[in-house]
UniProtKB/TrEMBL annotation:
Span of domain SIS: 44-184, 217-358
Function in brief: Catalyzes the first step in hexosamine metabolism, converting fructose-6P into glucosamine-6P using glutamine as a nitrogen source.
Gene Ontology cellular-component annotations: cytosol
Presence of keyword NADP: no
GO BP terms: amino sugar biosynthetic process; carbohydrate metabolic process; fructose 6-phosphate metabolic process; protein N-linked glycosylation; UDP-N-acetylglucosamine metabolic process
Protein name: Glutamine--fructose-6-phosphate aminotransferase [isomerizing]
Organism this protein belongs to: Aquitalea palustris
A GO MF label: glutamine-fructose-6-phosphate transaminase (isomerizing) activity
Keyword Transferase appears in the UniProt entry: yes
TM helices/strands, residue ranges: none
Alphabetical UniProt keywords: Aminotransferase, Cytoplasm, Glutamine amidotransferase, Repeat, Transferase
Shown segment, full-protein numbering: 242 to 609 of 609
Quaternary structure note: Homodimer.
Active site as annotated: K363 (for fru-6p isomerization activity)
Catalysed reaction, written as an equation: D-fructose 6-phosphate + L-glutamine = D-glucosamine 6-phosphate + L-glutamate
Length: 368
């Protein structure tokens, strides 16, 4: 294993650091194709123009990729999108509109609940399914009309990292492609999205360079029992992903909330012993997030803030700040994933858990 790991201590760390390459490989496929239907397979030119809505089905981290995609699909393509946990969907009498595209997201392509949810959607009358998958010719893409393969390379660590960020690229490309077909993305907007994709691997590398600062935070977390993650908008699913990563590999209980929900319940949990991780990019919701942070500070909660270079935060008593790259706009959620992955990794190391093979979990869940 040491040969395969190179300079890294674990597959998870290696896979986190492989993200600039995994992303640029995946982006290359998108740019070569120029947001044309062909990106999603031979039948995409025929099927995608018929799509009137999108239903995303997935589990775990792949489900969080779906939650992120909803924002892009609704805002860029102007198509309604709902996102559901596969294991729930497969057992409910769901409403199926055959004009809706079913999108499954799965790193392995073998997750039983996602596969069964896809079969169930077909039974209910869906006829168009797209698989976003990292493993070629696995079961889920084989059962789908359309496919987008992420080019993350093999992912060995149980905690999904590079699969997630490359799934987001595929989903973003889907939103832009659908938007273009519907006349909602003009040439100038398309050019802007291409540029955003081109710059993404560099911004992700910049975020990876924050590792020493993030490692320095990990000792503060290692002794904690609980943590809260907050984000808003597109960064709320990233907060969910950060909390899941921390749970999976450090065994610290972590929850994520959209920051605006604090007052509706979770604020009761906040006291001096509660670390609160905040994803605070310089977007339209920044001022809202800042006032949510004051609510936490006023109850003694210790804040750990990931803020863009230009979001003007300063450290103070109980407020720790790590500056992520300058705000990158529409793909900011991908860049902000890196620090929460690194945080979970270093907290787990500090606690001495088995990072690549956390207790009770399997890499691909092929049983119910
Ligand atoms: C993430 O770190 C997980 N271990 C898990 O939630 C995973 O994302 C989920 O089981 C779905 O797997 P898939 O993408 O291979 O379908």
């Amino acid at each position: 294993a040491s040969l395969e790991l190179g300079p890294y201590s674990h597959f998870m760390q290696k896979e986190i650091h492989e993200q600039p390459k995994a992303l640029s490989d995946t982006i290359e496929a998108v740019l070569e194709n120029g947001f044309a239907a062909g990106l999603f397979g031979a039948r995409a030119a025929e099927l995608l123009p018929q799509v009137e809505g999108v239903k995303i089905l997935a589990c775990g981290t792949s489900y969080y990729a779906g939650l992120t995609a909803k924002y892009w699909i609704e805002s860029i393509a102007g198509i309604s999108c709902d996102v559901e946990i596969a294991s729930e969907y497969r057992y409910r009498a769901a409403f199926a509109n055959p004009k809706h595209l079913v999108v499954t997201i799965s790193q392995s392509g073998e997750t039983l609940d996602t596969m069964e949810a896809l079969k169930y959607a077909k039974e209910l009358g869906h006829t168009m399914a797209l698989s976003i998958c990292n493993v070629r010719e696995s079961a889920i893409p084989r059962a789908s009309e359309l496919v987008f393969y992420t080019r993350a390379g093999a992912e060995i660590g149980v905690a999904s990292t590079k699969a997630f960020t490359t799934q987001l690229v595929g989903l973003f490309a889907l939103a832009v492609t659908l938007g273009k077909q519907r006349g909602r993305v003009d040439a100038a907007a398309e050019h802007g999205y291409q540029e955003a994709l081109r710059q993404l691997p560099g911004s992700v590398q910049h975020a990876l360079n924050l590792e020493p600062q993030i490692k320095a935070w990990s000792d503060k977390f290692a002794a904690k029992q609980n943590a809260l993650f907050l984000g808003r908008g597109l960064h709320y699913p990233i907060a969910l992903e950060g909390a899941l990563k921390l749970k999976e590999i450090s065994y610290i209980h972590a929850e994520a909330y959209p920051a605006g929900e604090l007052k509706h319940g979770p604020l009761a949990l906040v006291d001096e012993s509660m670390p609160v991780v905040v994803i605070a990019p310089n977007d339209a919701l920044l001022e809202k997030v800042k006032s949510n942070m004051q609510e936490v500070r006023a109850r003694g909660g210790e804040l750990f803030v990931f803020a863009d270079l230009d979001s003007h935060f300063s450290e103070s008593d109980g407020v720790h700040v790590i500056r992520t790259p300058r705000h990158v706009g529409v793909l900011s959620a991908i860049v902000h994933t890196i620090p929460v992955q690194l945080l979970a990794y270093h907290v787990a190391l500090a606690r001495g858990t088995d990072v690549d093979k956390p207790r009770n979990l399997a890499k691909s869940v092929t049983v119910e």
